[in-house]
């Protein structure tokens, strides 16, 4: 709840609300009572500390991310959340410096992380997909204030980690698979080389079926989407034709569209509500999408720093973002395809 929101509910100006809160100036008694009732109902507490700080404290947030254009633009959706939060915090002199790295190139994370640090940042929001490089970087810079989003890094010390439990995400995919494909017992899942998250999701998927002796699961590691397509072309029959395929990342539409071109019908569950997956769900070449709400992750990452640096409050060490499940029937419109559900994210302070 903010002063502007109170003003809107009370049908008065923000200045009138400010006068009531700080008990200064004259205010119509009826309006005062209306404002005070809203304040009481919503348990509003004005953040006087932040109000005093916002005029004299500049905060430069570094944002370190995989290339925004990669993985079907997934990282661009996270960036939208980061930018939205930064725009809302402009009055607190929050500025943003963005640094991209190619996660397929060894050393790219380290180079960009050092550049970010040397650019004069106050704190950082980091997507650390190159885990070993990230561990080394954090070891050499123990005083950095930072938030990790999307995934954690062992032996690191962020103020907060925002993301999902990947193994539980894989288990959820398996439960959905058992519902959508109840007669199926031959499944494929996979991971990409160097992707800790996809490995964990696949592990959770396999774990769900551990007591089903009739279920066979092929778990294969690929280097690229092209390798998946090549596998489907050359080794599909070798595995006895799959009843279902779980894509633990953005690649579901590649699989679904390719199998459709081969006139093979397979139940496909994929992570990530990017535009191409959305289209494939709409036309029926994939069956279900699990979304990890990337905009919300980026948005919350910046707000954790705001809460820590500006409000000087303790922040949650682990923030688990809930998975959204999409079928064709509840598919959002294209212009909302990566969930503009940020309105449900708590706003810290005034």
Task: List strands and helices in order, with pairings.
Blueprint (H helix, E strand, L loop, with lengths): L2 H8 L3 H8 L7 H13 L6 H6 L5 E8 L7 H15 L5 E8 L6 H10 L5 E4 L4 H10 L5 E4 L10 E4 L2 H15 L5 E7 L3 H13 L7 E7 L2 H10 L9 E4 L4 H10 L5 E5 L3 H9 L4 E4 L2 H17 L7 E3 L3 E3 L24
Quick description:
The protein has 13 helices and twelve strands. The chain has 350 residues and is α/β, with parallel strands linked by helices. A six-stranded parallel beta sheet has the order 2-1-3-4-5-11, sandwiched between helices. A six-stranded mixed beta sheet has the order 7-6-8-9-10-12, sandwiched between helices.
What does it look like?
The chain is built from 13 helices and 12 strands. The N and C termini lie close together (7 Å). 41% of the residues lie in helices and 17% in strands. The model is unreliable at 338-350 (pLDDT under 50). The protein has helices at residues 3-10, 14-21, 29-41, 48-53, 74-88, 108-117, 131-140, 166-180, 196-208, 225-234, 252-261, 275-283, 294-310; strands at 59-66, 94-101, 123-126, 146-149, 160-163, 186-192, 216-222, 244-247, 267-271, 288-291, 318-320, 324-326. It has 350 residues and is of the alpha/beta class. Helix 1 (3-10) crosses helix 2, helix 6 packs parallel to helix 7 (131-140) and helix 8 (166-180) packs across helix 9. The longest helix is centred in the last third of the chain and has 17 residues, at 294-310. The chain has a 6-stranded parallel beta sheet, with helices on both faces. Strands 7-6-8-9-10-12 form a 6-stranded mixed beta sheet, with helices on both faces.
